[in-house]
Amino acid sequence: MKITILQASKLLGCDVVTVREMLKEEGCPIGMAYKPEGRTRWTYVIYPKAFEWLVGRIGESDEKDNDGSRIADDDECR
Questions:
Q1: 29 with 45: CB under 8 angstroms?
Q2: Which end is more exposed in the chain, N or C (fewer Cβ atoms within 10 Å of the end residue's Cβ)?
Q3: Which residues of the chain fall short of a pLDDT of 50?
Q4: Other beta carbons within 10 Å of 39
Q5: How far is CA 26 from the centre of its chain?
């Protein structure tokens, strides 16, 4: 199951920039970010099991995207 930056931001209740910056921090428990040598863009990886442990809500809702991960309602993001 792949968790996107947008999905993570909705579930954590923060914006995508915050999630990206969090992943760039060394020792982030839910994933990592790296910039491949010679590239200008970062690559972001979210570890599904660690994220599920942190959020504890993935898969509990009837509303899911194509890969089965939970998507937060708009009201939950405020």
A1: no
A2: C
A3: 59, 61-63, 71-78
A4: 9
A5: 16
Q: How far apart are CA 33 and CA 45, in angstroms?
A: 6
Q: What SS3 state is found at 78?
A: coil
* The two structure tokens encoding residue 31: 């994933």
Angle of the 5-12 helix axis to the 48-55 helix axis, nearest 10 = 10
pTM of the model: 0.66
Q: How many CB atoms lie within 10 A of CB 46?
A: 20
Token pair listed for 37: 């040598």
The model's pLDDT over 13-22, given as tens digits with 9 standing for 90+, comes to 899 999 999 9
